[in-house]
Amino acid sequence: MIELILIGISIGAMSGFFGIGGGMILVPLLIMIGFDIKSAIGISIMQMVFSSIYGSYLNFRKGSLILGDGLFVGIGGFIGGFLGGFITQKIPDSILEYLFIALVIFALYRLILSPKIEDDSKSKSLPTYILVLVGFIIGAFAISLGVGGSILLTPILAGVLHYPIKKAVSAGLFFVVFSSVSGLISQFNSIDINSGLIVGVSSLIGVFIGIWLKEHVSNQKHKNLIIGLYSISLILMVNKIIF
């Protein structure tokens, strides 16, 4: 139990600071301590519900979360996340692991190539139906892998739509609210509820710390740290598959 509490606090801090659901780190960690990948995905989804709702509330209070486009992407993510919960049950573990690796590699590529944008810069926008479609695709793909979707959405917002990195991070975490709640509904009967609650409640402490830290680093340093986090997640999963 102590191990899960410490993991929850750590993942919560990462969620708040990096705007992620936490699954890209939590899933490999849970696998390393003995959970199978499908159990790890279920616990991860439950944790994401806690961290994303609380984190988005804090970001909104601090003014870094602009609802706008995020609401339409979130609606698409909710629908896609619901579908993704059923996809998980049909795909072999080995395929899920390789898809997870591909997801992180894509995110790294988009982040590294994203331009430097200041917080007061104007971002691009897309038609509503495109935003909903993007959310749907990201939600279905991400929830099936136990991640919230911000791992894909944040690089798209920063690298394609030219969002400032901190606003992209806040929007990414807001998206996780929709996709994770939807995933929780579709997978509820197969989730380890006790472990999920321990990790999820513990993560609230970390989320508060992570968001406070986010507000006290420069945009470029924040981006570099996000790239570092994605790289660590990639190494963890590759290590698991090989060894």
Q: How does this model look, in words?
A:
- With 243 residues, the protein is mostly helical.
- The chain has one domain.
- It has 10 helices and no strands.
- Helix 1 packs across helix 3, helix 1 crosses helix 9 and helix 4 runs parallel beside helix 6.
- The radius of gyration is 16 Å and the shape is globular.
- The model has no long low-confidence stretch (mean pLDDT 81).
Give the helices and strands, then pairings:
Elements: H1 2-18, H2 23-32, H3 37-62, H4 68-90, H5 93-113, H6 128-143, H7 150-159, H8 165-187, H9 193-214, H10 219-242
Helix pairs in contact: 1-3, 1-9, 2-3, 2-10, 3-8, 3-9, 4-6, 4-8, 5-7, 5-10, 6-8, 7-8
Mean pLDDT comes to: 81
Order of helices and strands: HHHHHHHHHH
Given as residue ranges, the uncertain stretches (5+ residues, pLDDT < 50) are none
How many separate structural domains? 1
- Strand tally is 0
Largest sheet data: none
* Beta fraction: under 5%
C-alpha Rg, in Å? 16 Å
Ends apart, CA distance between termini = 26 Å
Put simply, the count of helices is 10
Helix content: over 70%
Structural class: mainly alpha
Quick summary:
This protein is an all-alpha fold and 243 residues long.
Descriptive keywords:
243 residues, globular, 10 helices, mainly alpha
